[in-house]
User: What shape does this take?
Amino acid sequence: MPGISSVSPAGRAAVLTPLGLALAVLLAVSGVPGAAVVDWRQHRGAGTVLSHAAVALVAAGLAPLAWRALLARADRPRVLARALWLAIAVAAVALATLAVAAPRHAVELVAREWGLVEPAQVALYVVAAGLAFRHARLLAADGPRRAAYRLAGAALLVFAAEEVDYLGLPALVVRLAGGSPEGRIGRHHVAGLHDLLNIGSTSGAAWLVTRLAALAIAAGLLVALRRVLPALLRELRAPEARPALLGAVLLAVAELQDIDDGLLRAVGLPAGKVVEEGGEALAAMALVAWLARAVARTVAAGVTPAPRRPTA
Assistant: This one.
């Protein structure tokens, strides 16, 4: 009996994508505030698993086709750039329209683990990491650039792990070390590295610990970047990297919202969990756009991906 690896990309997409979309529609429709068939707040675990499964099915179905399309259009950089920018713009308009037209439903879909946007962030970060690692393989003859993209891929996997709270491991460590049954330090739930910033910004008792942790992370990054920083800066100055700059800005805004939304309100910017999670999803899309354009540039220059080894 043939395994799943023998199924063509089109055949896999024809099965997985409709299944994921149907599950996503079911989740979205069943949880409409005021007319909910299922109150997913009472079934958070099940809702989170279903929402992540729905997005994962769609991503697994479409990713091989998207990779083929990227390679086929590598010699048309302007067309590719327009398509990627258009996708980001359409997503931004859709999120803004949902937030204005149905704010309560927007919170459920965008800002909850059982919604669809948070799982989409995970999928986008994983896709971006995959593009970074594939690009690194294309650059086997260029050591510094290859290392830069491998580092970018590793960072994107950390972003994905942050979104799924490292599968609950940090909260478990806090519970075991501090005795907090909910994995909290003070009033803050500790699920990932980003929560250290929240604790350090508001809790005097944890200020020193969080700052030392931040310094350790910064030192590790400096060591990792020491050899690849020149190559990375050259890549970020390329025209293909413009979406990455947008992604960095959106991630910064999302982190400000996470730490203190009063900072955004003070300068007249919209704030709230929908802004935070929606902005991060757009940032992840921008990072995918950057890496897709970088891969296309390299392929158009005459570097071709190595064929995959046949599977038994």
The mean pLDDT is 82.
